[in-house]
Amino acid sequence: MNKFNKAILKLSAVTGLTLSIILPHAAMADNYPKKPVNFVVGFGVGGSADRMTRAMSSFVSEELGQPVKVINKKGAGTQIAANYVLNRPDDGYTVFASTFAPYLPNTILKGNASYTVNDFSYMNFQWFDYELIAVNKDTEYKDLASLVTAIKEKPKAVKAAVVQGSGGHLMAKLLLEKNGIPQKNLNLVTFNSGGKARSAVAGGQVDFIIISAQGSEGIREFLRPVAVVRDSESERWDAPTVNDALKPLGTEVPVLTGSMRGFAVTNEFKNKYPERYKKLAQAFESALARKDVQKFLKSSEIGGAWVGPNRSTELMVQNYETFKKYKHLLN
Question: For 228, phi and psi rounded to 5 degrees?
Answer without folding.
Answer: -120, 140
